[in-house]
Each structure stands twice: as structure tokens, then as C-alpha cells.
Amino acid sequence: MQKTHGTKNIWQVILASSAGTLIEWYDFYIFGSLSLIISEKFFPASNPTLAYIATLATFAVGFIVRPFGAIVFGRLGDVVGRKYTFLLTLLLMGGSTFAIGLVPSYESIGVIAPIVVLILRLVQGLALGGEYGGAATYVAEHSPSDQRGYFTSFIQTTATLGLFLSLGVILTTRTLLNAEQFEDWGWRIPFLLSVLLVIMSYYIRTKLEESPLFAQMKAEGKTSKNPLKESFGKKENLRIVLLALFGATMGQGVVWYTGQFYALSFLQTTMHVEFVQSNVIIAMALLAATPFFIYFGRLSDRIGRKKIMMMGMLLAALAYYPIYRVMDHTVDVSQKEELMNKFHIESHSSKNDKGQLVEKTTRIHLYSDSTEVRETTTAKDGVVLADVSGKPIKDIQVKVSMFNVFLLVLMVFIQVFFVTMAYAPIAAFLVELFPTRIRYTSMSLPYHIGNGIFGGLMPTIAAIMVAQTGNHFAGLIYPIAIAVICLIVGTFFLKERKVEDLTHD
């Protein structure tokens, strides 16, 4: 069994690594959780749908650059050390998040506002690209081989807990302020508060020592002088990197972002569930599902990592469509007889000669307040809500019944349960694929391409597909297809390695 010098202090190592990673994920997710408000503040208000897609694209940019962060900071981690590298990534992430809270609105400085936000998102993405590999490697190199999945699973909880924490801060701020105050300036508070969390996390991390395995290698002069060349220049190692991407991290990435980010986006932008209520639904589901990260991490030590991850992807691919059908049905007013006396709905669609959707218009007559709302979906502009004269209006928000709240929590919980299966074992799985001297670099790149490119782009791609087709279930085609492809590649071509000693080369 692998003997690690830091085993007796493993919980201190996990706390420090997890705290920093949690804060970085919190910083990253505030932007996604507040995407609707950000689209109003930093983009022109003339086309709300395009502004929202532009916001999602800006959010996605942070994911796209994560592989570059993995290369830059992965190399630094393999040459200089694990500890100091993820101290640097923490400061970069925290600083850029704090700065987003200070950027003036589009009304104040015009096009400079979205440009500055885009630059700060690039910094966030680069920093996060170097964070995860360092934290996972650091914990794994302190862990005994028969508990590696268990101990690294605590790192896996930080992404979900970071999202949960961001939702908690946003909801608390929203509750303490009225709607006008929150939309005017209160949305900035979660960004600004992050600086306090980063300072606390930085202090905890400075108390850590370097990974014992890396320290030993450095003392013996065996560290890699060119980890990029060793990782991607050698045919056998490059093959493992590619199989890790297309057979594990790609599918895990789309399952993760569908179950947490797309679920929230679907609740707010498709179902129009009220802001606080939709966030509470996600938060309750996350809280209930989070312990399963630890369960499946521990289970992977006994039965293997791969079969758990593949099963999570399979179940997700099979269940997504029926789950979202159930979710959508909870706010389908045309199916609720008790509300029919308040609503009258007319729907008209038009297509071109090729059978493609040109325009779909739905008129919703609200008899209770003599208001008529028109919702128009076009291939060019997506979904636009307007009054009967055609003037754009703000999104309609719906409050669902308590029964449907619990039903929606259950539907999101099931999705996050799939996330725990696909995500919990993957840190230990990736760490065991690569040797110590190039581990930080080799594992970071496939992880961040899978999560950053395939996973991070999921909400944006889904929104575009829905806007182009007029079918709000069309966005599910992407995650289902990616999960199936990854399942096939992973099942038939990716081999699992059970490594007793992480110092192997």
C-alpha cells in the first residue's frame, strides 16, 4: 500500500484544498446564477433574448479558456509545486470576481462594460483551469490507495457546494432587499463578498506543506523539465489523455452542467418560475444529493471507478427527456382546469417552404387584470415577450404550488444524483492514469476540455437550439448525444487502473 507522509493530516489537507476550491467555484457560479440580471446590466436592452444568449456566451468563455489554464498552471504545478500554484489561482479567481462587482453598467459606459466583463471572465477561466488539477492531485498524493476515491470525493463536493453557497448568498441578499434594490445594485453584493472568502481560504492554504511525493521528487531532481512535451508529445500518454477526454470527462461534463446549470436555466427562462422559488428548488435538490458524492467516492474504492461513472451517464441519457417533460408540465396552464377561468391561450405558427419555423406567436389573455401578453418565437430572435402592441416587456414569473415545488425538487435531485455517479470517482480515476512527474498537467487538460468545452457550453448551445427550433426540449439533444458517445468510448476503449503507488512512472 502506498505510504504517504501526510496521511495523519489528511483531513487538514482536505479542508484546505476543499475550502479554496469551494470558494473558486462559488466565484465562478455567481455569474451563471445571476445571468438574467447580468444580461440586463452589461448588454443592450433592445433584444432581451440575444442579450441573454450573449451573457451565456460570456459565461461560456470562462469555460473555453479553462484548458489553457490547465496547460499554463499544470506546467507550473509540475515544475514549481502543487501548493504555490493553487495559491496563485485562488488570488486570480478572487480578484477577478470582486472586480466584476465593480464594473459600471452598459448604460453608464456603453460597450466597454461587456468587454471588461469578458476579460475578467477570461481571467476566472484561466485560474479555474489550474485550480482543480492541483487540489485533486494534492489530496490524492496524501491519500492511501484503498481510500483514494473516498478522500478525493470531498474535492468533488466543492463544485456543488460552491453553487449551493452562491445560491444561498444570492437568496439572502434578495430577501433582505426589495426587487428594485436587488436589480439596481444588490446583485453586486455576492460578487463583492467573495473577497472575504478568498482571504480566509488563502490564509488556510498558506499553512499547508508541499505534497510529500512532489517534494521527494524535487529533492531527488526527478521533476519534469518539460511536462507539456512529456504529457502530449509521447504517443502512449497522449492516447490516454484523449481516451480520458472522450471516454470519461466529456460525458461527465455535460451531465454535471445539465443537472445543475441547465436545470436552473430551464426553470427560469423556459418555465418562468419566480426567481427566489427557482433558486430554492435548486438549492434543496443540491443539499439532498451532495452526500452521494461521498458515497460513490467510497464505493469506487471497492468496486472500481469506471463502472459507476458509466452508469451515471447511461441513466442520465435515458432519463433527461421524461424528467424535463414532467418539469415543464407543472407550469402548463393549459393543463390546469382550475386556472382556465383566468387564462385564454391562442397559439399560431408559421413555417417557410422548407418546413422550418419562421414564427410562433402565443397570446396569453389574463382575464384577472385585463392584461394581454404576446410571446413570439422566431428563428432569428428566439423567444420575445411583448404586450399586445408588440412592445417588449420583462419576463413573466410564475409561482408554483407547494406540491409542485417538491415535485420539481425531486426532478432536479434525480439529475444531481446522476451527477454524483459520474463526478464523484473521476478525480481518483484521472490521478491514477498518469505518473507523478506530469500528473498535474496530464489530468488537468482532459478534465477541463471535457468540463469547460463540452460541459460549459451546454447552456449556451441548448439556448441556441431552442431559439432556432422553437421547441424548448431541443436543448436536451446535446447532453444526451454527448453522454451516449462518451458512454460507448469509455465502456469499450478506456481501461481503469488500480494504482497502489502513485509514484509509478
TrEMBL record:
Superkingdom in the source lineage: Bacteria
Regions crossing the membrane: 12-38, 50-73, 85-103, 109-129, 150-173, 185-204, 238-258, 278-296, 308-324, 405-433, 445-467, 473-494
Keyword Membrane belongs to the record: yes
Cell compartment(s), UniProt: Cell membrane
Keywords: Cell membrane, Membrane, Transmembrane, Transmembrane helix, Transport
Membrane protein topology class: Multi-pass membrane protein
Residue ranges constituting the Major facilitator superfamily (MFS) profile domain according to the UniProt record: 13-498
InterPro entries, sorted: MFS_dom (IPR020846), MFS_sugar_transport-like (IPR005828), MFS_trans_sf (IPR036259), Sugar_transporter_CS (IPR005829)
Main subcellular localisation: membrane
Keyword flag Magnesium: no
PANTHER family to which the protein is assigned, alphabetical: MAJOR FACILITATOR SUPERFAMILY TRANSPORTER, SHIKIMATE TRANSPORTER
Protein's name according to its UniProt entry: MHS family MFS transporter
Species assigned in the record: Chitinophaga horti
Lineage: Bacteria, Pseudomonadati, Bacteroidota, Chitinophagia, Chitinophagales
